[in-house]
């Protein structure tokens, strides 16, 4: 993980205005305007409490914090909307879950669309959006996706070099399942397109730069099943796919072979966490250090890393987007399986 020059904390979960505290200032994320500036003697970051406590050089104290009602600077509310913010009491990784939930909820852009990272991505990705949906359903915040989901008209997001990635079909079906039923017109389009690009009941095409037929077909079956739509034409192939063990949501159709050694991927850690979840692997303690952000992605081909420079030059130079919603979702959905 690349470290920023200065510790920061993002505020504005869900559809609230996004702000960031860094180096004595509270700034807007979109526009980089300074809302508050303080002469700070001491900073205290309480990441899992969504709070920063500042002791100023004149001895006074400022608290910036966020709760289920809004974002506050002392008693002044600067952004408000209702959210469900569980404490995750009774879970083994309570603090981790609170931070990861924050990193999911902070990942909405200025159009209230779910994105991998609010600095380096402008548009939502169906893959990341579907992973976020898993968390938002679990925490009672799925309504945050309604505006985006109900506005979708295209079967593919085409964010990866303009390609129509087949896994998008299942991911879109899954997201739509929260707001529509199988009779929604776009669902019928998904099924028609899936049949068009299928061979022997499995999807064809390139996902994430490779042939991930098993992974894409698993997503299709899962998404359509959530809609109670017809899945009889789907046949999950028994073949090699390095992404297959990432689909922990339904292990029944995945061959149990070891497709690759699961070494920790420092560039795309969500890949490793997904496989750990699938295999119910023991989690290395080094991966559970309390920090903020807890999640990231490095050297992604479509990210605009120059846009994160106002937050951290180290991030921009190192091509790092942190926090990252897919990484946060994979961690969250595995760690929430562990009760205290």
SSE blueprint and pairings:
Blueprint: E1 8-11, E2 19-22, E3 25-28, E4 34-37, E5 40-46, E6 51-56, E7 61-66, E8 70-73, E9 76-80, H1 94-105, H2 126-139, H3 146-149, H4 167-176, H5 185-196, E10 198-199, E11 202-203, E12 206-207, E13 210-211, H6 213-226, H7 269-279, E14 297-298, H8 313-318, E15 320-321, H9 325-335
Antiparallel strand pairs: 1-2, 2-3, 3-4, 5-6, 6-7, 7-8, 8-9, 10-11, 12-13, 14-15
Helix pairs in contact: 1-9, 2-4, 2-9, 4-5, 4-6, 7-9
Q: Would you write up a description of this structure?
A:
The protein is α+β, with helices and mostly antiparallel strands and 340 residues long. It is 28% helix and 16% strand. It is built from 9 helices and 15 strands. Helix 2 runs parallel beside helix 9 and helix 7 packs parallel to helix 9. The longest helix has 14 residues. It is elongated. It starts with 7 loop residues before the first strand and ends in a 5-residue tail after the last helix.
């Amino acid at each position: 993980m690349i470290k920023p020059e200065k510790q920061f904390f993002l505020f504005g979960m869900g559809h609230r205005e996004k702000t960031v505290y860094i180096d004595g200032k509270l700034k807007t994320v979109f526009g980089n305007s300074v809302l508050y500036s303080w002469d700070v003697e001491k900073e205290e970051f309480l990441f899992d409490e969504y709070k920063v406590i500042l002791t100023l050089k004149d001895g006074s104290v400022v608290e910036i914090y966020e709760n289920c009602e809004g974002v506050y600077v002392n008693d002044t509310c600067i952004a408000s909307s209702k959210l469900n913010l569980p404490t995750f009491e009774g879970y083994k990784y309570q603090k981790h879950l609170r931070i990861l939930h924050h990193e999911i909820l902070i990942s909405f852009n200025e159009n209230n669309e779910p994105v991998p990272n609010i600095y380096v991505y402008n548009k939502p990705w169906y893959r990341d959006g579907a992973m976020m949906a898993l968390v938002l359903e679990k925490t009672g915040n799925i309504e945050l996706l309604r505006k985006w989901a109900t506005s979708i008209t295209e079967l593919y997001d085409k964010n990866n070099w303009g390609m129509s990635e087949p896994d998008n079909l299942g991911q879109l079906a899954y997201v739509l399942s929260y707001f529509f039923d199988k009779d929604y017109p776009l669902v019928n389009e998904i099924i028609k397109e899936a049949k068009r690009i299928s061979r022997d009941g499995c999807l064809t095409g390139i996902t994430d730069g490779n042939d991930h037929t098993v992974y894409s077909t698993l997503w299709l079956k899962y998404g359509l099943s959530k809609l109670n739509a017809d899945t009889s034409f789907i046949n999950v192939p028994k073949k090699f796919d390095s992404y297959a063990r990432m689909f922990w949501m339904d292990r029944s159709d995945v061959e149990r072979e070891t497709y690759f050694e699961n070494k920790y991927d420092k560039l795309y850690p969500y890949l490793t966490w997904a496989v750990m979840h699938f295999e119910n692997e023991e989690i290395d303690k080094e991966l559970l250090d309390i920090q903020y952000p807890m999640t990231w992605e490095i050297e992604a081909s479509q990210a605009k890393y120059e846009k994160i420079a106002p937050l951290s030059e180290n991030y921009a130079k190192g091509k790092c987007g942190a926090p990252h919603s897919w990484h946060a979702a994979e961690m969250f959905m595995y760690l929430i399986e562990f009760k205290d």
